[in-house]
TrEMBL record:
InterPro entries cross-referenced by the UniProt entry: Cyt_P450, Cyt_P450_E_grp-I, Cyt_P450_sf, Cytochrome_P450_fung
Family: Belongs to the cytochrome P450 family.
Protein name: Cytochrome P450
Listed Pfam families: p450
Organism: Exophiala viscosa
Keyword Metal-binding found: yes
Record keywords, A-Z: Heme, Iron, Metal-binding, Oxidoreductase
Length: 509
């Protein structure tokens, strides 16, 4: 006969299993989710999603399951939205309840000190910080940015002419220097350690935010373990202190320049003064607001310019059309550089920029997840609060149901009534209330850089090193993600760059 203790244990186990079975039956009667991607017990699909370049993986699943499918990453249920129709219906029209964020005990609470605004839940604190960021990145500030975008894109041309092997680093310096000029009142230099460290922290963050990168982000309940049992914490704290130091060094430089009477007026100075009146914004939150601005203004623009260069190499049929338009405005026998004042005469270049954002979604290949804050119903499905939703960026951008010849780089698809609305026709800046606050700056960055680069340079694949545009790494560790031959169009174009751009190279402030 079994002992009483074994009988008691067996009864407890039977009760537990019974409760879970009953709970599952009740849940399944109350809720209904889109088709599930088969996984394994407990871990779900955690080990199926690749650590990088997740776009192709999610695109293949969309082709198999249709407009929506469900995955399980740890304890979190994710619903992928694979068409513009469902993204519009849920993340745009119902953004009031689809705009929060999942729990990220590692990536947000530890690595970001709970202060990275892009990962904050949809609450009053997020709205307050979002308002601050919007004040420096909104459309009314575009005139503030234009002089810096003009200066930095001239420097970009100089770097391409004199250091073509460092073209990718030059793209990063250009984008970073625009935002640094506005936010911190200083320029960035090619190969500058501070700029390289910033891009390192961006890649640290992006590599950790991917589904499956950290077990505790998939199972937030693990964060309730005693601190000494949280094996992930030491690594997270090292990344936090590394990131915080990068941001703090910039603030320290500002304070030193203020003391020396050499600091230009800039957003950071005004922001830090305002923070003295806002005691509920602590020092770490202040640093991460400024850091988020640096990140928002740097990485996406750098990668987007690079993607369009890849498109010029692999789908070159559109380049002569862009050149003809630029030559008609600025002279086939080069007379001057294109500028923002020419934009109304350069509709094809605007279309090139939009196509660049659509063509191969970068950074957020499977979108950026949001969390449903209350139960919702849609087309026969019943979603519980806490469900994670994301727009499947690659699946949408490369779907023939969305675009004709989606893999082709074809700017003509955007020569329509929405040409001058950068948010229409693609999801590169995200949907709903979590749309990227810096889209005005990012779009203008890419326009001025690409118009001038196409006017002055030819881009070709390196023989023996073809560019696989479906496999361009988004996290390249600071190295160029593909090989490219860069040649100035003519000696006269080289002379134009020397004449128009040399004065900005040594400009300091």
């Amino acid at each position: 006969m079994p002992s009483p203790s074994w009988l008691l244990l067996g009864a407890a186990l039977a009760l537990f299993v019974g409760q879970r079975l009953i709970a599952s039956i009740i849940w399944n009667r109350k809720y209904k989710l889109p088709p599930r991607v088969p996984g394994i017990p407990f871990f779900g699909n955690t080990f199926q999603i690749p650590p990088t370049q997740q776009g192709p993986w999610a695109k293949d699943l969309a082709e198999k399951y249709g407009e929506m499918f469900t995955c399980k990453f740890g304890s979190q249920t994710w619903v992928f939205l694979n068409s513009s129709r469902v993204v519009n219906d849920l993340m745009e029209r119902r953004s009031a309840i689809y705009s929060s964020r999942p729990e990220w005990p590692m990536t947000q609470d530890i690595i970001s000190g709970g202060s990275r605004i892009v990962m904050m839940g949809y609450n009053d604190h997020w709205r307050k910080l979002r308002k601050i960021m919007h004040s420096i990145l909104n459309s009314r500030q575009t005139e503030v940015y234009k002089p810096f975008q003009d200066t930095e894109s001239r420097h970009l041309l100089w770097d391409y002419l004199h250091n073509p092997d460092k073209w990718y680093t030059a793209n990063g310096r250009f984008a970073n220097s625009v935002i640094m000029s506005v936010v911190f009142g200083r320029r960035s230099q090619l190969g500058e350690p501070a700029t390289e460290k910033l891009f390192e922290t961006i890649e640290d963050f992006l590599s950790n935010v991917q589904p499956g990168a950290n077990l505790v982000d998939g199972y937030p309940v693990l964060a309730k373990l005693p601190t000494f049992l949280q094996w992930w914490r030491p690594r997270g704290l090292r990344l936090f202190h590394k990131t915080r130091k990068v941001y703090a060094d910039e603030v320290r430089n500002i304070n030193q320049k203020l003391a020396d009477g050499k600091q230009r007026d800039c957003f950071a100075v005004q922001f830090l003064e305002q923070c003295e009146k806002e005691p509920d914004i602590n020092e770490t939150q202040r640093l991460f607001v400024l850091g988020s601005l640096m990140e928002a203004g740097s990485d996406t623009s750098k990668v987007s310019v690079s993607q369009i260069i890849a498109a010029a190499c692999t789908y070159p049929d559109w380049v002569p059309k862009a050149r003809a338009e630029l030559d008609a405005v600025c002279g086939a026998d080069p007379q001057r550089l294109p500028g923002f004042g020419d934009r109304a005469k350069l509709p094809y270049i605007t279309a090139v920029v939009k196509e660049g954002f659509r063509w191969r979604p970068n950074i957020a290949e499977i979108g950026t997840p949001t969390t449903l804050i209350k139960d919702d119903e849609y087309e026969g499905y019943k979603f519980p609060a806490g469900t994670v939703f994301t727009w499947n960026a690659w699946a949408i951008a490369l779907s023939p149901n969305e675009y004709v010849e989606p893999e082709r780089f074809y700017p003509e698809r955007f020569l329509n009534e929405d040409l001058n609305n950068p948010l229409k026709g693609h999801w590169s800046f995200g949907p709903g209330r979590r749309v990227c606050t810096g889209w005005h700056v990012g779009e203008a960055n890419v326009f001025i850089a690409i118009s001038r680069l196409l006017y002055c340079f030819d881009f070709e694949e390196v023989p023996g090193h073809p560019i696989d545009t479906l496999r361009i790494p988004q996290l390249a560790g600071g190295k160029a993600p593909f090989a490219v031959n860069i040649k100035v169009r003519s000696e006269k174009h080289a002379q134009l760059i020397e004449r128009e751009c040399s004065s900005v190279v040594d400009l300091q402030y």
